[in-house]
Amino acid sequence: MEKNIASYFDQFAVPAEVVSFVDRPIGHFIDGVELDTAADRIDLIEPFTRERLTSLASGTASDVDLAVASARKALVGPWGRMPPLERQRLILRLAEAMEADADVLAHLEAIDVGKAISEARTIDVAGAIANLEYFAGWTSKLDGRTTNAVALAGETLTYTVKEPVGVVAAIIPWNFPLQILSWKLAAALACGCTVVCKPSEQTPLSAMRIAHLAAKVGFPPGVINVVNGLGHVIGQALAAHRGIDKLSFTGSTPVGKAVGKTALETMKRLTLELGGKSPVIVTGNANIDNAANAILSGIFLNSGQVCDAGSRVYAHKSIHDELVHKLRSGAESLPIGAGLDPASRITPLVSSAHRTKVLDHIDSAHAEGAALVTGEPTGSDRRGDGILRPTIFDNCSENMRIFREEIFGPVLGVSHFDTIDQAIERANSADFGLAAAVYSDNVDETVQLSRRLKAGNIYINAHGLLDPTMPFGGMGASGFGKDMGPEQLDGFLSTKSVYVQVASSSAPE
Predict the structure, then answer these.
(1) 278-460: which CATH topology?
(2) Residues of the chain with CATH 3.40.309.10
(3) Is 307 an active-site residue?
(4) What is the model's pLDDT at position 326?
(5) Fewer C-beta within 10 Å: the chain N or C terminus?
(6) 193 is catalytic
(7) What is the CATH number of domain 3-274?
(8) 3-class DSSP state for residue 453?
(9) Which of 46, 109, 201, 273 does the annotation list as catalytic?
(10) Using one digit for the tens of pLDDT, what is the confidence trace for 278-315?
(11) Of 191, 193, 197, 307, catalytic
(12) 214-245 b/e (C-beta count within 10 Å ≥ 16 → b)
């Protein structure tokens, strides 16, 4: 381990179990064990120190073949034959193991992603556990139905059967690796599927930890597999593999389109949860203090690296100036620092390359005439700790990149409107449709706006609320299909229709 990373870990008393888990070469997890078949390796860079943390196996299509074969064997083996209540108990055991391991998992997310450890504990780890607990309950409730035929002659028995779709490929992004893994894993396991997970090559640690915990609590080999490596290699291999029955992808819109096209060649089922450029409408009837606090949380959580971040604000002209003042004050008071520091709210971006992309968007906002309220000036220096200050621009318009493209960083754009119709038209002008938020104390106004906004998730007087009972997913360039909620289950189930012709009785009277 590099000297600066060791010092960083010592400064924040990182538990020895975390250190031992990361201070080693990371392989794949296939058929119940960690193994490393890779000739090539990928350096994992710790976001705050920007130094090498460890190395990761750079997998190949052959590794995908091994994982898929293991998953298919488990599908017809002990896992496939396991009664639903036993599967339910295993999923709950995994949730309990994660609860016991919560401090380790939170540290892994903070080290891997660079995110604030306080958020990792209360959002990422807690949310992942809740997803498993919720979907465990569905395991024993996935029933078909019986019905009476309405157009068939004679007597028939007709019914449907729900069966697992098969082997699921779960492709996980780098911003919420643990929580989004749980979205896909929990529902797939509840339905009786097996899983091959491809985490981001930048943030593989929590997926590997979950695979180890699953084996420890008794999941049969092959039920949960992890193949590490480059996205264009492993992701495309999974999308093209004929042994994969379902692909669930979360990531950028361009990459989602690419893997989606490949998956359709073999007629896989698809869930694509893609990018966002979520609008926020603040009406003249809003509680300004509440709106400002919620908007700040919605854009600066995880240093803005959130797919449904409320990144473009439309404020009614009557409250615009007051709102911008409060947003500026709130943004400038957010504690900035290392992800492992419990006091930090704004922490390093995931990589130097991503930080450069975000700075490019900031520079374009300056060049296109947006007014800097607070944050990074044009040509901002590239500080060594990977952090970008919370940045807010005013006087933004739809022809600016800041209002048109997903930035995925701590950058907020603000504009004002005169009428509600104008606000709706501008909010719906983007290609994305993942989320939107409305701030108003007028109930009628919030209901009307929620119905007119084109987005899969609508937040009223809040932003980024998530619950396992509620489906999450978008429309347009934000993809299709749902994670979480009962609606997600159909994506992991096949419905079989069964017709039984009942012979007429020929017995004598």
Answers:
(1) Aldehyde Dehydrogenase; Chain A, domain 2 (3.40.309)
(2) 278-460
(3) yes
(4) 98
(5) C
(6) no
(7) 3.40.605.10
(8) coil
(9) 273
(10) 999 999 999 999 999 999 999 999 999 999 999 999 99
(11) 307
(12) bbebebbbbbbbbbbbbbebbbbbbbbbebbb
